[in-house]
Amino acid sequence: MKIKELKQMLTPLTIGLLAGTFVLFCLFVIISLLILQLNLSIKFVGPMATICGGVGSFISGYISSRLFGRKGLIVGAICGAFFGALVFALTAVSTGILISFSEATKILIIFASACFGGIFGVNSRG
Asked: In whole angstroms, what is the distance from residue 37 CA to residue 92 CA?
C-alpha cells in the first residue's frame, strides 16, 4: 500500500472506528441494564460481550469501507485488529489472563465480523 492511499484511508477509518465504538458502548449499556433488571447470571456476560463486540466491529468495518469505497477486506481487517486489540487489552487488565481459548475465540469472532462488515460495506449499493 502506498503512503497516499494510507492517508486517504485514515479519515474513513477514524469515522468507522468511532461509530463502531459508540455502537459497542451503547450495546454494553443496554445489555448491562438487561442483566441487572432481569437478574441474569454472570454467565451471560461473556457471550453478550462477544455479541456486542461482533456487532460493533461489523459496524466499524462497514462504515469505514463504505466511506473509503474500495479494499473492504483490508479496511475491515484493520478495524478488526483495532477491536481485537481492545478486547485483548481489556481482558488482560480485568482478569489478569493474557490469552485463553475463549478469549482467542472472542477475538477471532470480532475480527471476522469486522472483515465481513468491510466486504459488505464496499459491495453495498446506494
From this structure: 28
pLDDT at residue 68 is higher than 80: yes
- pLDDT higher than threshold 80 for residue 94: no
Buried b (16+ CB within 10 A) or exposed e, 37-69: eeeeeeeeeeebbbebbbbbbbbbbbbbbbbbe
pLDDT exceeds cutoff 70 at 126: no
Question: How far apart (Å, rounded) are the C-alpha atoms in residues 116 and 118?
Answer: 5
Domain span at residue 62 reads 3-123
Q: What total number of domains does the chain contain?
A: 1
Q: Grid coordinates representing 1?
A: 500500500
